[in-house]
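Sample entry (474 residues):
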Amino acid sequence: MASSKKEEKAKSAKTAAIEKMKNKDFKAARKFAAQAQKLCPNLDENDDVVRIIHVCDVHCSDAQKVFEGERDWYKIIDVDPTADMDSIKKQCQKLTLVLHPDKNKFPGAAEAFQLICEARAVLMDYEKRSFYDSKCRANALAKNSRFPNKQKAKSRGPVSKVDNTNRSSKKKAGKSEKDGFVGDDVDILVPSAKKPKTGASIWSVGEKHVNLEDKEATKFASEPKKNTAKGILVDGSENNRKNLILEYTESEFNDFEKGRAKSNFNDGQIWAVYDTLDSMPRFYALINKVVVRDFKMDITWLEPCVPEKEEEKKWLNRGLPASCGKFRHGCNEIIEDHAIFSHLLSWNKIINYEICPKKEETWALFKNWDIEWYRDQEGHNTKDYDFEIVEILLDYSSEFGAPVVYLSKMKGYVSIFSRKHEEGTELSKVVTVKERLRFSHRVPSLKNEGENGDQRFFELDPAALPPNLTTKDV
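Predicted structure, serialized as tokens:
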């Protein structure tokens, strides 16, 4: 008897859901269908209620635009933005079977089926998906800058970064190759900071002491300061925002903010922007035009070109970072947030933009890197990365890769690194072309050599380093 009453209520809820669907009120229809399902939970994929729910879910997801009428294709097919091609393909096949007009006659089913087909056309095509992701990232960055009012340029840590993919002295725009800044490229957030008062134009580092030009500078070096910024981390969806406070340590001797001062931005440059994975400078932006010097830029996001190797394609489709290689134009955007920019890049352009490590630059390598990280179901794109810091010995070659020497942080300093030795020998290796995705990002740095020229030191920009590498060891 009780079972019969439940069935009657379920039928009544189902009928109400269909009426709502006829009026295109899919949100209300979804509630009635869920009620019917709760009353009769032992349903399979062929049950009418399940079909109704699938139709309603697609339409409800379609109603939640990413921005300016842009559909959220990931939400429509109910997959994570980092899903690989196989997962997307399986999900689309499942939904097309359930929603096909020949099998699903409920109101809105044909339109829902068409939306799944459109989503598949975008997300199963590498070029279209990459461009779509670029637009979503750019919008997240523009609308949700994580850098509230920046007080001084040192703000920088996780910036209002856009999701996957988008963040010196220079030569004039128009040349095919450009120099990096003096000394050495949604969730984004940038800290505000005071400029370091070094009082010294030349810095000298030793294992046990620091020689600076005045006592104030010495005091500054012995007491590392912290910079703090509040902001919103965005992972590409307006529904996924988190208020965060980012804290990072100031540099001890050199003012890296000078390299990214507003006055340094010019048409034709390419700048690194902090990304949405862990706020490291892995996104690249081409400055089309300096609209307002203080501060409004017309930029084009650069996206990785489609790689030839299948495993590299899977890496990129998984949403994992790529900062070394060839890049092409993505979408355009007007950016008014100066704090998202890290540093000016050097690059070559033949057909596409080639951004690779250059001699004497310092880069972060992914520690224990493996090209098969894309197989990780939990996703390396959501984990905390560990890094190894290296100095580039020769420009990266598309044939051989680049020889590097490992750097280690010197005790007693915030971000002073020197060449790493093992049994009296410098620890080095060659990062081959097959390992190019091991390069995480360039870390801006300033170089100094010992009095006899026999020892080399680098002060690295703390804003491009994870917190665990800027802790001042005793």
